[in-house]
Amino acid sequence: MRRSPMLASLTRHKLTVLLLVLQVAFTCAIVCNVASMIGHRTAQMHEPSGVAEDELVTLESISVDEHDDPLARHDSDLAALRQIPGVTSAVAVDALPLNSNNWSNGIATKPGGNAALTATAFNGTPGERQALGLQLIAGRDFLPDEYMPIDSAHDWSGINHVPATIVTRALAQQLFPGQDPLGKLIYPGDGPVRIVGVVEHLLRPTLDESAGNEYSTLLPLLPDTGSVTYVLRTAPSERARVLKQAGDTLIRLDNNRVLRHAQTFEQLRADYFSRDRSMIGLLLAAAGALLLVTAAGIAGLASFWVQQRRQAIGIRRAVGATRDDILHYFQLENFMIVSGGILLGAVLAFALNLLLMVHYALPRLPWLYLPAGAVALWLLGQLAVLGPALRAAAVPPVVATRGG
């Protein structure tokens, strides 16, 4: 079928065509960015934490006794918790992946140098790595004589004197690309800290939109405040019982304390990402509504044009055009309009993404979302125009003799 009659028809309805092109363009720009945000959030929600998620239970203990010795209290609490049947290990920690209790430090690779990046410092009692289930892929664990109190009463000065650290693979690769990180010195504080081990994964307590969500360090610093998180490892089927007995045990040892956030690690993860799941639901609803509005606009305009062109369609049928010719005519016309909107929408999509990157620190829009969005809009356009196009194809040749 020649395109010149189609182009002539479109140029006679410039404003209407322009409005539809703009509608498709804005839909393309918004839907591509929404899809990118959903994809990014979904991927983040499934990032491995590095810990044995299905074997851990946690509860926070807050002592209200101002004269209490935190280190002695933690030792006695842990000794009792390890006696609970089914508990394979128990440790006290100051933070966990996804628990939002984030202590970050700038990490430099030479004394007095500028921080190359920011990493989370995880601190805990001996056995923390094994209890959490962190996979050591290089080096060793901490030695008993490497542990020291955090000394939080003196502005966290422990980090200026700690001798060793275990880092994540992601952090090691960022600090020393292409090199063996074992034995290298880093500076999270004033003094040098030697890397003695590398773990595969360890998510930070609070995630952001950057690529540094696994920039983590384990330090042999003992939690030394009245507020501490106890982590117990047990079989998945024993978690509920162990969690209840742990709470009862701690209260029996000292009822002058507050226990909160008693939960499995899986519950901790679910709570952390609850807002993300809600946001994904809202974004899906908004994107779906926008696509429906666009489809309605395409279908409405096509129906209007079919009504206007009934006599012209009848004439074409009278001179030999088949129903398939009429159907394909409207489908091709819609394809051209939607394609124009997609081309403009691609430019708007990257412009919108740039604004989101600047103002909301969102990641760059992957280019694969554009062809995926284009295919979705082409299919949507063809489905929306199908009904009006079939009605146009059903116009009989006799309409040409009736004056419309």
Protein model, in words:
With 404 residues, this protein is an alpha+beta fold. It is built from eleven helices and 13 strands. The protein has helices spanning 4-11, 14-45, 70-81, 128-132, 169-175, 239-253, 265-272, 274-308, 310-318, 323-360, 369-393; strands at residues 56-63, 89-93, 104-107, 117-123, 136-139, 148-149, 164-168, 185-186, 193-199, 216-219, 221-222, 227-233, 257-264. Strands 3, 4, 5, 7, 8, 9 and 10 form a seven-stranded mixed beta sheet that branches. A four-stranded antiparallel beta sheet has the order 2-12-1-13. A hairpin with a 6-residue loop joins strand 8 (185-186) and strand 9 (193-199). Helix 8 (274-308) runs parallel beside helix 11 (369-393). The longest helix has 38 residues, at 323-360. It is elongated and about 100 Å long. It starts with a helix and ends in an 11-residue tail after the last helix.
Give a brief rundown of this model.
The chain is 48% helix and 16% strand. By secondary structure, the chain is of the alpha+beta class.
Keyword list:
11 helices, alpha+beta, four-stranded antiparallel β-sheet, seven-stranded mixed β-sheet, 404 residues, elongated, 16% strand
